[in-house]
Amino acid sequence: MANNKAQDVTYENAAPFAQAWTEVRAGLRRDCGVRTFDHWLKPIRLGAFHAEDGLVEMVLPSPFMARWVESHFAERLTLAWRAVAPMVSGVMVLAEDAVEGVALYAAEPEPEALAVVPQPIPEPRTASSLDQRFTFDSFITGDANALAGSAARKMAESGPVMFNPLFIHGGTGQGKTHLLHAIGHAFEASQPGANIVYMSAEKFMVEFVSAMRAKDTLGFKAKLRSADLLMIDDVQFIAGKGSTQEEFLHTVNEVMASGKRLVISADRSPQALEGVDARILSRLAMGLVADVKPADHDLRLAILRRKAEAAGSVVPEEVVCFLARKIANNVRELEGAMNRVAAYATLTGRAIDLAFTQDVLGDLLQASQRKVTIDEIQKRVCDHFDIRQNDLVSARRARAIARPRQIAMYLAKRLTPRSLPEIGRKFGGRDHTTVIHAVRQIEKLRASDTEIDGDVRALIRTLEG
Ligand SMILES: Nc1ncnc2c1ncn2[C@@H]1O[C@H](COP(=O)(O)OP(=O)(O)OP(=O)(O)O)[C@@H](O)[C@H]1O
Asked: Binding residues for ATP, per the UniProt record (predicted)?
């Protein structure tokens, strides 16, 4: 499958991205500051867009600059791109001489010329990619995560492992990444000198595709296959990404065959990972599959108490209970809320109490009241139009199915934070352009057709409860 790659690369199609690129650059210049921008980011040129993997090439004049930008700015570039072009899933940073015959698009000139100022060099990153905060000590266990927590501890012990791989799955912000990092730290302690590789599946893909473009995949393969403990986070990301999956499968096979440890996380179980090769899924399900459920009230309380203590904040029990009751979606939001309250208290010199907390978190509390999912939208739309959910995600084009499908896509865009490609995937693996078309179509129809507008309003009312 790897040699299909050339077909995925459409050099011409970077042109429509030129406008987005101009916006990305403007945003980066604002966010990173003029000096950093001028020194590191201004020389970047837009290369090809890889439609299959949603990767956009960022091309630098020299290998040194490419390496530097890759290690210091790749995440920021990705976020900036996603903010203006949802079909972009990540960036590939390349040196110009690694890109043969690529049509490069220069962004528009900067709005104003700026004086050249001596450049501060960004701090190099630490050697380990493990977050020091994410350890077993700081991970609170409860009913929701007991199995995953103890399996993770076992995976980090020295001696033979009882299962391999360990597959941890659960919803967003429930502590999967935290557990992976904790395994890494504990493994480092139990086996000093061991080679530990932690990588998000997104980074796996970006590094692999970059290595392919640079015709140098050996280094990439060697790095992963020499790991004593390999951890790949958020593996759902490789769904539908052909050549990346092929490489991932080889990596998994080699790591397992050489008796090295493999830990994987995903937002759903292996059986539910649509768009991932069955050979990969069967290997991932071979060891222990443990889920992390949403933290229940008691666990949320315990986590909050610990986080407040770690931050050195005095948070009254009344506030802890209030937050645990009100912010039930995920631990990340809970932690974010607590941090925000603590930060405001420090900045304003006020003590944390209930009134202060409600004041500071006003918008967040409202937003967390109700979260609509695409599944729910599909069910409601099917009930409303009396069609089957299978039809909604099928290829059928009959008006009686196609219109409700467009309405469901429109609602998914309006009521959930999901990106266009994600919505497309949820509707039978459709392209993001189909979703855009549906959204525009329904917007137009709502303005001209009172019946459709009435249907949409009724659905929004039921979904938002
Ligand atoms: N049981 C827990 N104990 C302590 N902290 C937790 C726990 N669960 C989650 N957290 C904290 O919540 C935040 C989000 O967790 P994490 O990033 O691990 O979530 P995730 O499941 O990997 O989410 P995603 O799927 O979106 O990547 C982190 O700061 C983490 O420390």
From this structure: 173, 175-177
Is 175 known to sit in a ligand binding site?
Answer: yes
β-sheet bridge partners, residue 264: 167, 232
Query: Sign of dihedral through CA atoms 171, 174, 177, 183?
Result: negative
Q: Indicate the pLDDT class of residue 98, thresholds 50, 70 and 90.
A: low
Pairing of strands 288-292, 166-170: parallel
Check the CA dihedral 211-212-216-218 and report its sign.
Answer: positive
> Ligand 1 centroid to 84 CA: how many Å?
27
Mutation probe of ligand 1 site: the residue of 150, 167, 169, 178 with most atoms within 8 A of C-beta: 178
Say whether 403 sits in a helix, a strand or coil: helix
- Residue 12: the pLDDT is 37
Which one is the CATH code of 2-98: 2.170.270.10, 2.60.120.470, 3.30.300.180, 3.40.50.720?
Answer: 3.30.300.180
Cis peptide bond N-terminal to 421, omega within 30: no
Q: How many CB atoms lie within 10 A of CB 270?
A: 20
Q: Whose CA is nearest to atom 10 of ligand 1?
A: 175
Q: Domain spans of the chain?
A: 2-98, 143-292, 297-367, 374-464
Query: Is 307 annotated to bind ligand?
Result: no
CB of 140 closer than 6 angstroms to any ligand 1 atom = yes
**Beta-bridge partners for 288:** 166
- ipTM score assigned to the predicted complex: 0.99
What are the tokens at 311? 């931050």
Q: Collapse the DSSP code of 354 into the 3-class scheme (helix H, G, I; strand E, B; otherwise coil) and give the result.
A: helix
| pLDDT attached to residue 122 | 36
Topology of the domain comprising 143-292: Rossmann fold (3.40.50)
* 176 CA to centre of ligand 1 in angstroms: 6
d(CA 188, CA 130): 11
Classify domain 374-464 by CATH number.
1.10.1750.10
CA of 226 to the centre of ligand 1 (A): 28
List beta partners, residue 49. 10, 56
> Was 428 annotated as part of a binding site?
no
Report the amino acid identity of residue 394: S
**Type of residue numbered 430:** R
Q: Say if residue 193 carries a ligand binding annotation.
A: no
Neighbours of 121 (CB within 10 A): 10
pLDDT tens readout for residues 299-331:
999 999 998 888 788 899 999 999 998 888 789
The CATH fold of domain 297-367: Helicase, Ruva Protein; domain 3 (1.10.8)
Q: Are residues 184 and 196 in contact, defined by beta-carbon separation less than 8 angstroms? A: yes
Contact predicate 188/195, CB 8 Å: no
Name the 3-class secondary structure at 290.
strand
